[in-house]
Design brief:
elongated
């Protein structure tokens, strides 16, 4: 009879330890920050990849500024063309004052 009670007591201890471990695990999981997923990259790059794409994109940006391809642009490397395209795109970007005329005012003005 004593063995039976010891077996029941032992099973109770094992069950209590298992329940305690489960509760600690649940509490630990709740304290972890939520998992976020980063934005997926676009399937295709918006940045020109080939020389032809870079020339086309640069031409479009130059036309927006009322300009044309410079003389002897053909001797530029692909990387130079891409760099000039990016520079022109930045130059064509709207300024903060154009987007929001009151943006430049200071606090207290």
């Amino acid at each position: 009879m004593a063995r039976m009670w010891m077996g029941i007591a032992g099973a109770g201890v094992v069950a209590a330890v298992a329940a305690g471990a489960f509760l600690v695990g649940v509490a630990w999981e709740d304290s972890l920050p939520p998992v976020t997923e980063s934005a997926r990259p676009p399937a295709e790059s918006a940045y020109p990849q080939t020389r032809a794409e870079a020339v086309d994109a640069w031409t479009v940006e130059l036309k927006k500024a009322g300009e044309e391809l410079p003389e002897n642009w053909e001797i530029l490397t692909t990387e130079e063309i891409k760099g000039r395209y990016v520079s022109q795109r930045v130059a064509n970007a709207p300024k903060a004052e154009d987007i929001d005329p009151g943006m430049a005012r200071r606090v207290g003005d």
